[in-house]
Amino acid sequence: MNRTENVAFEPSGGATYYDGRPHHLGRVLCTVADGRLIVEDSPRGGVHQFLLRDVVEVRPEGGLFGPKDVSIATPAVAINLWCKSKDEVRAITDLVRAAIRNSC
Fold first, then answer.
1. pLDDT tens per residue, range 3-59
2. Which terminus of the chain, N or C, has fewer Cβ atoms within 10 Å?
3. What is the rounded CA–CA span in Å between residue 82 and residue 88?
């Protein structure tokens, strides 16, 4: 993926955005574009943007019976992208990490 390439994906389980308290976003559309992760909250019409250079952690969780999610954190905010399978967790984690590497 190069810096100008836009990649869109929809986490199957929605998302939760944290800015000191949790905001359950439900269904979201995520786009990696121009050094940013853009999360569009479909039901509410909100947009959250993360500069990839500010991301300090991309942590996949994929327990057998527990939740499956990708946690993406900056110093100020975080988002959990909820998934239905370990394969989806791996694919989103790989996509975001590659975008971070290519944004520098």
1. 557 899 999 999 999 999 999 998 899 999 989 999 998 767 789 999 999 999 999
2. C
3. 9
Q: Domain for residue 81, yes or no?
A: yes
What's the rounded Cα separation, in Å, for the pair 15 and 30?
Answer: 10
Can you give the residue range of the structural domain that contains 84? 7-103
Q: Which residue has the tokens 């946690």?
A: 71
Is 2 within the bounds of a domain? no
Q: Return d(Cα 3, Cα 94) in angstroms, integer.
A: 16
For residue 94, give both structure tokens.
């790989």
Please indicate, yes or no, if residue 1 is contained in any of the structural domains.
Answer: no
Tell me the CATH number at 86: 2.30.29.30
The reported pTM is: 0.88
